[in-house]
Queue: 4 jobs
Job 1
Amino acid sequence: MSNESLIENIKKHGWQCQYVFDANGEKEDFSYSIGFEESFDHPEIMIFGLKRETMHSILSGIASDIKEGRKFEEGVRTGNVLSGEFEVIFKSVNEEFLPEYAGIATSFYNKPFRMMVMFWPDKSNILPTEVGCKLTVQNEALKIV
């Protein structure tokens, strides 16, 4: 996607979903927003380990919530993001990892910006940041927060 179409999408929708995958299958697929910071003064959001369409749908829901004034805070178990009673937690991405994991956003902003990983729970509503979580597909994300 060209930089011009990225800029157009952000002007039109306020954000764009960027999907990242490892063709070798060695790292987890992930998606992240570009434009939340510029359009809504909110950190960008990154999600690991779900299907592409699912990550886009979650980010789209988050974008709608942010447009309506909702703020997602770091380190707080948060409901009403996923269906049912499941909660998520957001953790800030260490700035040093932004060029590697969010290169297109880094190029777009060309200045410091905020990004958080949204961690989602296992079937027992235990988050990867908590002891006893049965998921491993977000382990890579744990290394960058």
Job 2
Amino acid sequence: MTINLTVTQVLAGVGVLLALVMVWRAGSRKARAAADTARAGVRLLSLTGRVLTTAAGIVGVQWLVITHGQGSALVWVVLGLPALFSAYTLTRALTVAAVEGSRRRGDRR
């Protein structure tokens, strides 16, 4: 059994295969972009929950110390320590330490 194909038929077959590969790659890129977007949303929600939980814990401890430990140095420690942590975090977040060079395609972020 022999298959006789013309040059036009072979080129058409290669063109169809190339089109299928391009459609497949475009679909995988869109799926990857959608997954990255979903992950970013979950990270933000998780971070927000942790920040609110930590803030509630700090406020609870501060409330207890202020209501039951009036006139002691513990009040200043309980109010000052979270302020120091907050100042440190904000200073690091708002300070530009280095400018990163341009990344090539395919480099990890």
Job 3
Amino acid sequence: MSYLTPAEFATKMVDSGASKIAMSTRDTLIRAFMAGAILALAAAFAITITVQTGQPLIGAILFPVGFVMLYLMGFDLLTGVFMLTPLALLDRRPGVTLNGILRNWGWVFLGNLGGALTVAFMIAFILTYGFSIGPGEIGGKIASIGKARTLGYAEYGLAGWLTIFMRGMLCNWMVSMGVVGAMVSSSVSGKAIAMWMPIMLFFYMGFEHSIVNMFLFPSALIMGGDFSVWDYMWWNEIPTVLGNLAGGLAFTGLTLYTTHVRTGPKREMVQPPVK
């Protein structure tokens, strides 16, 4: 399936990070909006499957279809740019600055949020027939998840906040591996398989993904979730975003960059002695 070596795809990671920083604001917003919307649809899809089958594993197995679609289309998630763009700065790519990275993160965040909120409203509207009836079993499941993953953490105070942060780290360790998976092959099937595995793992394990949560919690609030916007921000979105940043960069970006890009040019083949 046209597998690339680690040195090859690690260099592609740096190239990708540099190109995202140089991208226009319009393109950044469009790509981020579509990524947030598609991932939100995938989350709704997985929750629907889980409710209808009673098997969370089936939902987790099928959730990555959204991630695969959005990356094959070249769209961007905040979790991915968290990992890729700092590598371009470390590699001293021309024109790459800290301000440029922060600008990219800001626009991608807003685009992802816009896409996720759009789908959250549409799903809530569909499940309630224009807010004229109750949300039903699927809407109730979404609302219960929102409460459990905000107030459920709040019960434990700082320990709960740190738990979300670490779940965010583990999440973007896996999600950023999925981003890298899109680069390890030049074939569609190879890319899809490489992306599928880590995304399925993070979803089934219940790790915290900031963009999925941009859909999950607002839609829960729309459909009567028993928690506040402040609960969502402080007891989920903020620690999740910080955990996603730390985990993706530390566990995936820096490790691959350090061992496959930084040390690559220093490698020399040892010549056998002449007899």
Job 4
Amino acid sequence: MTDPTLERYRQSIDNIDAALVFMLAERFKVTQAVGRYKASAKLPPADPGREDAQIARLRGLAAEANLDPEFSEKFLRFIIDEVIRHHEKARGDG
């Protein structure tokens, strides 16, 4: 017999995980379009100033949400690195 309270928590976690996957998919659709645009406009795949601003913004949001800012930065850095890899590929570098 499963514990109903634990099952409710797990269902919520499963729902959140599903939402995260779909949100990341949408984010990558947009960043892939950005990569194609950057390639056609001969812009560099990476934008360190934008990346730094986004990391600072996300760290602030994380602090407001009582989420470890270090974790949020690592998570965003992982995403940014993947986006840059896609942009390099769109440009023909990868």
